[in-house]
Design a protein that fits this description.
The complex is a heterodimer of chains A (120) and B (531). Chain A has 120 residues and is mainly α. Chain A has one domain: Cytochrome Bc1 Complex, Chain D, domain 2, CATH 1.10.760.10. Helices cover 47% and strands 0% of the residues of chain A. Chain A has six helices and no strands. The two termini of chain B are 30 Å apart. In chain B, a hairpin with a 5-residue loop joins β8 and β9. In chain B, strands 13, 16, 17, 18, 19 and 20 form a six-stranded antiparallel β-sheet that branches. In chain B, strands 5-6-10-8-9 form a five-stranded antiparallel β-sheet. Chain B is α+β, with helices and mostly antiparallel strands and 531 residues long. In chain B, 31% of the residues lie in helices and 19% in strands. In chain B, α7 crosses α12 and α12 runs antiparallel to α13. Chain B is globular. Chain B folds into four domains: 97 residues, Uridine Diphospho-n-acetylenolpyruvylglucosamine Reductase, domain 2 (2-Layer Sandwich), CATH 3.30.43; 126 residues, Uridine Diphospho-n-acetylenolpyruvylglucosamine Reductase, domain 3 (2-Layer Sandwich), CATH 3.30.465.10; 237 residues, Vanillyl-alcohol Oxidase, Chain A, domain 3 (3-Layer(aba) Sandwich), CATH 3.40.462; 46 residues, Vanillyl-alcohol Oxidase, Chain A, domain 4 (Orthogonal Bundle), CATH 1.10.45. Classes of the chains: A mainly alpha (120), B alpha+beta (531). At the A-B interface, α1 and α4 of A face α1, α2, α3, α4 and α11 of B.
């Protein structure tokens, strides 16, 4: 009887999952409404390293790397293409590890890539 | 697509199809591009044939899906390797210990199932990170703190199971010690709960650890006996205040009494938080003047180093820590702590920050040394420390546990420094950390990266460090998968009786040997070198 109940339970589970989004958020801040979904994704998943303020290792590392010739803040860069952003998210660089689809879906990566490569 | 070792390609294709039916086709990964994202970014064998790689990935969203995925894997004897958030960087990241294993990625299981303010506990799934729990608590204004390791993106469950630790008071910062209650899926898909969770409708699963009968939770840490799908954790009630302090001493020869004073204050419960002892003179990346002074490894270098510290206004030894609680209690403790350190000529205790809780978002953002205030962050992921300094691409940590007395700690540091010099490796750290109540942990972050020759030197040095430590009776508390076999082989009292017991457990609990083969040196029968 128990096995039957388990089978029934799993027959429901075999329905294909909806295309849902992982909900990682590497920030201590509560979620804030933002008109630009790319900016919201960036703040949620990237700003803890690449934002402004203290303890942002991505920004401080790029500050040393570029010595002010290029902005250390990714949001201030005008030379980033969407492909470059996608590449670094999925391949990592130096201490930045690769990010998996269970952390950031392709749609979320695209959203961040569009935001950082937007025309200004 | 390459099937896992021991699994025929046609059978593996069937398995993948069955898994797609359980979790959805978009959560089964087999392409090279997707599998690359599961590589250990800090592998000491990066790009070499011995680098541990996955053959596929399946990412369930619920415990029911985990049970079904494991039943399917068990039926086909597919080697599986569960990860939680996959951020155990330095200790293997999201790559398997046994190449060709399928990663069971639990990141999507990110539900915070309960946070109980009155009794100060949380019940979470493996994909919940320290950031997630911190934000959950903050959004609701709950009077609770989390205890987090340096990087806050890791999993509470994963970090606890690998014996990770944090920075606040003792009952909370040893993350396995702070757990209460587990839910575990066994290799064949059977579901069990430990402690009071074994009683249906138990009301104290997260409040009483033992339940009835043998306490088995420990066998699911640093092991491969089950997939942990839920875990409870005790949380620290938010204190009224926190005072961030730093004890300092001025001379090379103060090292031993400085450590001993700190240790006695901890034993007397005057200092409850994590602390560590480091030296701006001996332990940080430095300019050429200090590097030259340091290059002399003899005791005879002490006067010159003391003079350098004095001239440049650096303390020789530092130990940061926090006091938590009502302000009058904190101030009373501080008086005793100060008088204890001031018995060492020139030593002092400096106040670095004082916060009254709750704090604003701006205070969270500007808080120094955030994990000491229970605030997660990623400050340690710096790739470049200074203009012209070598690029830091990753590290593996040599983490021996040594007796908690100043003389032994200094002796150990000198011994390990010598091994590092002989093997041309330049670790960051060598700090003495007090994560655990009665022992010191020394952490040497040994750089690894994309340079195969440098990685080879790092591996050789690491291996030698382990051997030298074992000769002195010091063992590692946690280790990268590349060194798990060697690490466990050094815990070989009575001709390896403990390892044989692990293997007997493995054979009983996972007779087909499909879960996390090789993790912490525990291999299934068919992969044991002795078989």
């Amino acid at each position: 009887m128990r096995h039957l109940a388990v089978l029934l339970a799993f027959s429901l589970l075999t329905l294909p999952a909806a295309a849902e989004s992982p909900t990682i958020s590497w920030t201590w801040r509560p979620a804030t409404a933002n008109a630009d979904p790319g900016k919201a994704e960036f703040e949620r998943a990237c700003s803890i390293c690449h934002g402004s303020g203290p303890d942002r290792p991505g920004t401080s590392s790029l500050q040393i790397k570029y010595a002010g010739k290029i902005p250390a803040l990714l949001e201030q860069r005008t030379d980033l293409t969407a492909d470059v952003v996608r590449y670094y998210i999925r391949n990592g660089v130096a201490m930045m590890p690769r990010f998996r689809k269970t952390e950031l879906t392709d749609a979320q990566v695209d959203s961040i890539a569009r935001y950082l490569s937007r025309a200004r | 697509m390459t099937p896992p070792p021991g699994v025929a390609a046609a059978r593996f294709t069937q398995v993948l199809q069955q898994w797609r039916g359980v979790v959805g086709a978009e959560w089964v990964f087999t392409s090279d591009a997707d599998l690359d994202t599961y590589r250990d970014s800090y592998s000491p064998m990066y790009g070499e044939p011995t680098e541990r790689r996955a053959s596929a990935v399946v990412a369930p969203d619920s415990v029911e899906q985990v049970c079904e995925v494991m039943r399917i894997a068990y039926a086909a004897s597919v080697p599986m390797y569960p990860i939680s958030t996959g951020k155990n960087l330095t200790y293997g990241g999201s790559a398997p210990a046994y190449s060709g294993s399928v990663i069971l990625d639990l990141k999507r299981m990110n539900r915070i199932l309960e946070v109980n303010e009155r009794n100060a506990f949380a019940l979470v799934e493996p994909g919940v990170s320290y950031f997630d729990l911190y934000r959950h608590i903050r959004e609701r204004g709950l009077k609770l703190w989390i205890d987090c390791p340096d990087p806050g993106w890791g999993s509470l469950i994963g970090n606890s199971l690998d014996h990770g630790a944090g920075y606040t008071n003792a009952p909370y910062r040893d993350h396995f010690e702070a757990h209460c209650g587990m839910e575990v899926v066994l290799a064949d898909g059977e579901l069990l709960r430990t402690g009071m969770g074994a009683m249906p409708d138990s009301k104290t699963w997260q409040q009483f650890r033992y339940g009835m009968g043998p306490t088995i939770d420990g066998i699911f840490s640093q092991s491969n006996f089950g997939v942990v799908t839920k875990m409870g954790f005790w949380l620290m009630p938010e204190p009224e205040c926190a005072l961030h302090l730093q004890a300092e001493a001025t001379r090379y020869e103060d090292g031993v009494p400085f450590i001993d004073t700190l240790v006695q204050l901890i034993y007397k419960d005057m200092i409850g938080s994590q602390t560590h002892v480091e030296s701006p003179i001996l332990g940080y990346p430095v300019g050429p003047d200090l590097a030259k002074l340091r290059a002399d490894p003899s005791e005879g270098r002490a006067p010159a180093l003391n003079e350098y510290a004095k001239k440049n206004n650096f303390p020789f030894w530092t130990a940061p820590f926090c006091l938590y609680g009502p302000e009058d209690v904190i101030r009373a403790k501080l008086g005793h702590i100060r008088s204890s350190f001031e018995r060492i000529a020139g030593a002092r205790v400096r106040e670095l920050a004082f916060l009254k809780f709750p704090i604003t978002d701006d205070q969270v953002n500007s808080a120094p040394d955030k994990p000491r205030f229970g605030i997660p962050n990623l400050a340690y992921f710096t790739s470049r420390f200074a203009p012209g300094a070598p690029l830091f691409e990753g590290h593996m940590d040599f983490s021996p546990v040594v007796p908690l007395d100043g003389q032994t700690v200094r002796e150990a540091q000198e011994i390990f420094d010598k091994v590092c010099r002989e093997h041309q490796i330049t670790p960051l750290g060598g700090r003495m950390l007090l994560y655990h109540l009665r022992a010191a942990t020394l952490i040497y972050a040994i750089p690894v990266g994309r340079d195969a020759e440098a990685n080879r030197r790092a591996r050789e040095g690491f291996s030698k460090l382990m051997e030298v430590a074992a000769e002195h009776g010091w063992g590692e508390y946690r280790i990268h998968p590349a060194f798990m076999d060697k690490g466990m082989s050094l815990y070989n009292y009575n001709n390896g009786a403990l390892q044989r017991f692990h293997e007997r457990l493995k054979d009983a609990v996972d007779p087909r040997g499909i879960l996390s083969a090789g993790r912490y040196g525990i291999w299934p029968r068919h992969l044991r070198k002795s078989e």
